[in-house]
Amino acid sequence: MTERLTTLVETVPIALITLDQEGEVEAWNQAAESIFGYEQREVLGDTFPVIPDEEQAAFDELLQQVESGRTVTREEAEWQRYDGSRVAVQFWASPLQDHHEHDEPATRTPGERGDGAEHAIVAVEDVSSQQERQEELELLHRAIDEAPVGVTIADATQDDNPLTYVNDGFQELTGYTEDEILGRNCRFLQGEKTAAEPVAEMREAIDTGKPVSVKLRNYRKDGTEFWNYVTIAPVRDETGDVIRFIGFQQDITERKENEQELQLYQRAVDEAGHVVMITDTEGTIEYVNQAFEETTGYSKEEAVGQNTRILKSGKHSDTFYEELWETITAGDVWEATLVNQRKDGRLYQVEQTIAPITDTDGEITHFVGIESEITERRLREQRLSVLNRVLRHNIRNAMNVVRGNAETLAETLGDKDQQEQAAAIRNRANELLELTEHARKIRDLFNRETEDDATCDVNALLTGLRDEFHDEYPEAELTITTPESALVQADDRLATAIREAVDNAVTHSDQTPPEVTLTATPPERTETGEWVDILIADNGPGIPDQEQTVVEMGEETPLTHSSGIGLWLIHWVAVSFGGEVTIRENSPRGSIVTIRIPAATS
After folding, report:
1. What value does the mean pLDDT of the chain take?
2. Strands 515-520 and 477-481
3. Cβ atoms of 244 and 285 closer than 8 Å
4. Half-sphere exposure of 15 (CA within 13 A, CB side)
5. Stated pTM of the model
């Protein structure tokens, strides 16, 4: 029995301590060690160490009462741990008397005591965590009562989930008093314009015991409408059953109205079809619309926070951009046509307007830029202009020659001149057929859309053209150099442009034999992106300056125009893939036509 009692004393979670008549510790169990931090060997035989100095006198008096036979129950105090910190406790103290040898246990009745207790037993419980929880609950209750939003609690164990608690915020929000609210379901706030969808969503969540947040139109006691952001969360018991629903209601009327107005403006901006972006005064992007994403290839997440320099193509001088900033920072609107660069490296042309946005004090806070892409329009205008010139000028002149020679043949018969004139007719007819074939080829090339994800291996392309060129131009010396791998953002129309460049180099050569060198560079990273250059170099008479200027400027006039259509075809193909064509002199003679195409991104 002694062993069992000892085990019990040492394992209970309550500190059990016995003190003699001098107040010295006689027993100190493990729970006492845990609560106060003193080990048993440190306290046995010493004065009870946990009583603060200011409470020692009161405790000594309490012990005297216990020695006289009084039992003390449920006293609260703050005693002292080994480390000096305080701990909130509840304690009981009872007298404890020894059995003397001459006492006969059988003659004593339960609860009978001697004249005085020789010992006191003190039972101590650590209630600090309970006290902390109580303080937290009181703080939480005050916070809920004073919260700036409506808070409700509904009883899920009763039919129709009646409200059992509402805070002041809910009463202020709705205009109803607590007496008018308690016992009712929260649906009394709904009315004629309350949408069915959020109500159904809320009902389904309640039925399935899930949290839910909805925005719905509610009505105050006086009938006025307000937008209510309602959040409902289930509270479960230890078995997992829902016993309460806690609700939070917040008046978001002003926010909802602003949100609806903003959504209207945003839809208008997104559906306008033009690129719209808003930046701060340093050019950092803060907003872009859907057209921006579609045009540039940058998502909103990628663009916002970046400087507008991400669109810079390198085709404009520093002076150009300095004039831009001088204009808009002065509060004026800036308009220009410029070349930008997409995320994948392709170039595109835009008509751009940038305007400053000012605050109520007239200070510039932002800039708004509106772009209209004109790449396809400019290309279309160029194609139509050139084709119109070809059909209206070149073919007409050729037909005049045909007609003149035909008239001459009609007047002369059977001599050598007739043969020469017939040859002239034939030659001009061939030229006309060749020109119309070019026009047909261009029409067919650009009748289909350019695929954004199209890629072409330049190595494989030039290798495939090698035999074709040797068969078609046996009199020419052709040299083809290709990199091991060079993927570009282009489709099979790139081959047509290369064929045209080689054909021009051989056909217009004044050397025997014509020499043509075809070289492709590996992808090279520059300030404006990663490019692959395809160079067609020849030893011919060179391309006239007027021809170069017209194609590189991308525009013809009645006085300044190209004499053919081949260079235009090459230019249009390169530009349609986001690239460009440049022409320079070869050394010691001839020309070098460079077709620059963006390298593939993957």
Report:
1. 83
2. parallel
3. no
4. 26
5. 0.46
Model confidence pLDDT, tens digit, residues 365-400: 999 998 887 766 667 666 666 766 666 566 666 766
Per-residue DSSP letter, 152: E
Q: Residue 270, class by beta-carbon neighbours within 10 Å (0-12 exposed, 13-18 middle, 19+ buried)?
A: middle
DSSP alpha helix (H) spans, 191-333:
196-208, 253-270, 290-296, 300-303, 318-329
Q: Are 131 and 30 in contact (CB under 8 A)?
A: no
pLDDT the model gives residue 297: 92
Query: Tokens for 16?
Result: 């059990």
Section 162-180 average pLDDT: 93
Q: What does the DSSP assignment read for 391-441?
A: IIIIHHHHHHHHHHHHHHHHH--SSHHHHHHHHHHHHHHHHHHHHHHHHHH
With contact defined as beta carbons under 8 Å apart, do 566 and 504 qualify? yes
Q: How many CB atoms lie within 10 A of CB 8?
A: 11
What is the SS3 assignment for 350-387? Answer: EEEEEEEEECCCCCEEEEEEEEEECHHHHHHHHHHHHH
Distance of CA 220 to the CA centre of its chain: 39
154 pLDDT tier (thresholds 50, 70, 90): very high
Burial of 99 (0-12, 13-18, 19+ CB in 10 A): exposed
From residue 136, alpha-carbon distances to 99, 244, 247 in Å are 48, 20, 20
Would you call 511 helix, strand, or coil by DSSP? coil
CB 253, CB 261: distance < 8 Å = no
* DSSP labels, 325-344: HHHHHTT--EEEEEEEE-TT
